[in-house]
User: Fold Tat pathway signal protein from Brevundimonas fontaquae.
Amino acid sequence: MDRRTLIASGTAALTGATASRAAASGSETESAPAALSIAGLGLPVIEGGRLRNYVFVALRLELGAGKTVEQMKPKEAFFRDAVVRAAHKTPFTVPGDWTRLDERALSASLVAASAAVSGRGSVRRVVVVSQSPRRRTGMQTAR
Assistant:
């Protein structure tokens, strides 16, 4: 076997393996729901009428049927605004803990606000990916 044949067969084998991996990863992404990520959102922790802390959250909005990330990306600022307004109106505070927020209340509020921002059913679910409090010391903790 000469060098040219060896190189040509090796290149063909690599191309076939890469194509099969691409097809496998393409089918995995189609089954996963489309999601829009919102990071670095600072929300207040208010207890007893006083501002106690800020918690920075990262959210993932799982989009409804027929919605794509490209359609929803321009509306990210409106989603941020809706969450911040809701957090100041009715804080997502966990009683007795100033270092985290109530994920269920936050999720429900954003799903309800999404109907006004981008239409009913555009956001199926909101997942709180991470919470990071501004201050960690001197805070009350839930017991």
